Amino acid sequence: EGLSIKLRKFIPVAAGMAGGSSNCAAALKGMNQLFDLGLSIDELCEIGVTLGADVPYCIWGGTALSEGIGEKLSRVDAMPECYILIAKPGISVSTAFVYQNLNLSGLAKHPDIDGMLECLRTKDLKGICDRLENVLETVTIKEYPIIEEVKKHLMDQGAMGALMSGSGPTIFAIFQDKKTADNALKSLRSIEDIKQAYVVRPIR
In which element (H, E) is residue 155 found? Predict the structure, then answer.
């Protein structure tokens, strides 16, 4: 007879953090269990990609390489021990706008995927941070300079690397120890535009 679903959202809307995709993935996995459908992860992903490019990854969870439009997933080594500060300015960004204005042919730099995978394999946190790259920044930062400001601020506070998440505007920064991450979190109080910020550890 269908379902009535009430969402209590913790991941901000239009934040570049796959909040809607993770809600969708949770609903698919929940229905699979609730109605005892017996669908495999691959079958759930086939349904998920028709609803959103990030949904298959959210069904998988953990650390993975995503290719194609998001439907080609392969498991990779987990992040080494670290702390991640997540900060969201008080703005929302349209993913559609960012992709519509992305000039792929004009990109001067592309992510070093092979290098990143090797650094994950060897647990080289500095190597990972040195290879952080998000081509969507070329669009979003021009529209919202606060993103670059926050990235620089977090690097000045001891982050090993900082990057915009997805299409933005959320920024994440990687720290080797919790004390430095916590101090950087406190320092964000000086930036009025930051509305949400917290420190997490990556899933291992």
Answer: helix 146-156
Express each pLDDT in 117-140 by its tens digit.
999 999 999 999 999 999 999 999
Distance CA 195, CA 15 (A): 12
pLDDT at 175 over 90: yes
Surface-to-core class of residue 75, CB atoms within 10 Å of its CB (0-12 exposed, 13-18 middle, 19+ buried): exposed
Task: Give the global pTM.
Answer: 0.90
- DSSP character for 17? S
Cα–Cα distance measured from residue 171 to residue 178, given in angstroms and rounded to the nearest whole number: 18
Residues 95 and 64: beta-carbon distance below 8 Å: no
pLDDT tens-place string over residues 108-118 = 888 999 999 99
Strand residue runs (E) in 22-131: 64-67, 72-75, 83-89
Identify the burial level of 106 via C-beta atoms within 10 angstroms of its C-beta, where 0-12 means exposed, 13-18 middle and 19 or more buried.
Answer: exposed
Cβ atoms of 49 and 43 within 8 Å: the answer is no
Q: Is 164 exposed, middle or buried (0-12, 13-18, 19+ CB in 10 A)?
A: buried
The β-bridge partners of 196 are 88
Backbone angles phi, psi at 91, to 5 degrees: -135, 160
Order of strands, sheet of 83-89, starting from the edge strand that comes earlier in the sequence:
161-164, 171-175, 83-89, 194-200
61 pLDDT above the threshold of 80? yes
What element of type H or E holds 175?
strand 171-175
